[in-house]
Amino acid sequence: MTRRMGGVPIRFHRLQIPCGGRFPTGTSTNKHRLQLKCHFFTQEQRAKNSTANMSKVLDIERCDLNIKKNNSSHHTELYGEERLIVRRGQPFIVVLHMKPGKEIKLDQTSLTLIAEVGPLPRKESDTKVSFSLHDSIVETEWSASAICDPSGNTVSMTINSSPDSPIGVYSLTLDQDGQKTSLAQFTLLFNAWCTGDAVYMSSEAKRQEYVLAQHGQLYRGTFKRIRPLPWNFGQFEPGTLDICLKILDENPKFISDADKDCTARKSPVYVSRVLSAMINSNDDQGVLVGAWGDIPDDGVHPGTWIGSGDILHQWAESGPVHYGQCWVFAAVACTVSRALGIPCRVVTNFGSAHDTDASLRIEKLYTVNNERISTDDSIWNFHVWVDSWMTRPDLGVEYDGWQTSDPTPQETSEGVFCCGPASLKAIKEGDLTKKYDAPFIFAEVNADVVYMVRLSNGDIYTLRESTDVVGRSISTKAVGSDERHDITHQYKYPEGSEEERRVYHKAQHHNKLEKRGAEPGLQLKIKLSDNMIVGLDFEVHAVLTNNYMRESSCYAMFFAKAVGYNGKLGETCAFVSEKVKLSPGEVRRLPLKLEYGHYGPIITSDKLVQVSAITFDNDNFDYHRAEKTIVLDEPDIEIKLEGDVTVNNQVAAELSMKNTLPEPLQNCSFTIEGIGLTQGKPITVKIGTVGPKQDAKANICFTPNNAGPTVLVVNFDSDKLRHVKGFINVVVKP
Fold it and tell me: Quick one: pLDDT band at residue 660, thresholds 50, 70, 90?
């Protein structure tokens, strides 16, 4: 039988049975095996029994891996009972059963345990170690102990791996005086429950959330209109762990130097950086292909995905998956990290700067007619990445904790489209010399924005500088609930504080502007309405306040454009202009009506509209500008489940949603998916056309296969109202 180990085919003998069975003796093993030598007698015993028959070969009938008990104690029971999956630095027990009438005497038998990982394990690479049997295991290193029952028919072996071991699939073999018997395979993962592991996390509630939780919330929109997006991570779903290990084996570093790569897999810093590169497909055959703007028809729209499982399985079967955007890249990275045992959370940064020249400044240049002059820098309405928990021995203990990695392909790092991991403490303190990619991530959350206008004579005039546009309401799901947790304080000090100024000085950033209240002159703000639902007409207002002690005149323009979540502007959907004269202290509201007939045909599936106002007084050289992004609300999906939800009994989900548009929706469909509810696959029902202001309705049946709490995620799609999400918490009874 041929299996793959680290991407290289290795042939194993038919006697290799993971859960028990009969084993012939004298079986030779592959020469590339990680040898873990456990001598079942002490030096004193060896001297005392020097005349004993040491060549006697044990007659082993089977090896019991205690999969159910071991997996439960290692928090891997959700992977099932088909194989042994353990976490490093924590003991597990296997039991050898002798053939009937045979017995084992530990003081008369020389035994060696052999385990192998990767295609070329070597002692020099820390993938090959040997150690003697002790009375008890040693928690900080590979070690083993054994107890023989009084009859001598069984021996219980407790094996402990080093908390610094490379993760991966190991093969376990028993060497009896040179005669080898293949016992089984086991998978070794990072261990957030082990104090000696680099990913150790002291809080059980956080371990449950960041390692074991299979569903969560992502966040999109703007900092004033934050919208949750339910997501199924599904790291324990069948086949997912194998796919995650395959991702490591497909990375270019493994292909170019498998020995070095497998050795480095002991470090979560290394693994996280590999995942940052492999979740996108820009430099390799990674998981996802990115697409922004007009999404091609040859793949899945990023807004359609509601979980990582389909994406990972499609990649494993046919290569890079079309298409993803930042929240999809981040969610898949979170799934893979949690599957491998690295605590991970998905983070959304609202007002996220893309600083291409590492200046820590975003310069926005406009003409006098408010036309944007293109630059490489940009500010995205939101951007999503992941934080992973680990120590940073390469930086120092003060940089331990959350580390930011960004799998969305934006800029190259060391010649590859990847980003991070960068310590949050380094980001907050402005220690931008600390690897990896700290300057880029610092700018994403803390860059200053400079607004400038190019006059008709070519001169450039600075309108204003803003310190609070970038890095707002940085959000992640709260531990143990579906609420949003604001973690902005973990990334930076409060705007305008002394600590913030100290950090910017360390980062060689220009000095912050002094905190100011209302200044003399003309003040310009944009006021949004409360009822901005897609399909409805509504008004927004530009509010002008004259704080001069004299009358003030200006020319005002107020307009709206469609915009993508990455900040790319589309067509104009509303425009007004007016010559305004204000008496001292006067406040004037300039209305702008947004009609669905104008904005509906041009907005993207992100349902975003950017409104901008500009005033200028050429006589007094007085310019002002304001800008806001509108997130149009979607109709809610109502979800009702009929009766009790129990294992292996069909349940009907009643789904309904009001079409808020003044026109019919074509090609309407509802899709549901839930871990332990829909057999690992989405279920879609097409319902055809839904008239204007009518309700879209569907009944979808599913049969739960696992008991316990879970989440049913619902997606509604149509030609004009796309990717509307909803969810309901479900408790499945046995």
Answer: very high
294 is a catalytic site residue: no
Size of the chain in residues: 734
Beta partners for residue 280, in sequence order: 288
Packing angle, helices 309-318 and 326-340, rounded to 10: 90
pLDDT band for position 230 (cuts 50, 70, 90):
very high
To the query of whether residue 509 is one of the catalytic residues in this protein, the response is no
SS3 for 461? Answer: strand
pLDDT band at 244; cut points 50, 70, 90: very high
What is the structure's pLDDT at 507?
Answer: 63
Residue from 261, 310, 355, 406 carrying the catalytic annotation: 406
The yes-or-no answer on residue 633 being catalytic is: no
Helix (H, G, I), strand (E, B) or coil at 346: strand
pLDDT score recorded for residue 122: 84
Q: Tokens 């120590």 map to which residue? A: 391
Q: Among the options 74, 322, 383, 624, which is catalytic? A: 383
Task: Provide the 3-class DSSP secondary structure of residue 617.
Answer: strand
Question: Model-level pTM?
Answer: 0.83
Candidates 38, 244, 262, 326; catalytic one: 326
Nearest alpha-carbon partner for 349 in 510, 472, 173, 182 = 472
CB 93 within 8 A of CB 145: no
* The two three-digit tokens of residue 454, written as one number: 């190019």
CA separation for the pair 515, 22 (Å, rounded): 77
